[in-house]
Design goal:
Layout: H1 2-5, H2 9-15, H3 26-37
Length: 59
């Protein structure tokens, strides 16, 4: 399904506005979730790390 979405003109123009320049992969979201529940994030509190390819960093 992702391959079909990436071939449309509308999707291509949307991707051009994204900092990552591509659609996110399910593995990227899974890795972010795994980090949040791991011991590596033991000093992070009361924040939801965005997994948005850098979109919120440009706001």
């Amino acid at each position: 399904m992702v391959a079909d979405l990436s071939r449309t003109e509308e999707t291509a123009s949307w991707l051009a506005t994204q900092p990552g320049g591509r659609l996110g992969r399910p593995e990227a979201i899974a890795n972010a979730a795994l980090f949040v529940v791991s011991d590596e994030s033991d000093y992070i509190h009361a924040v939801v790390p965005p997994a948005d390819g850098g979109l919120t960093g440009n706001l």
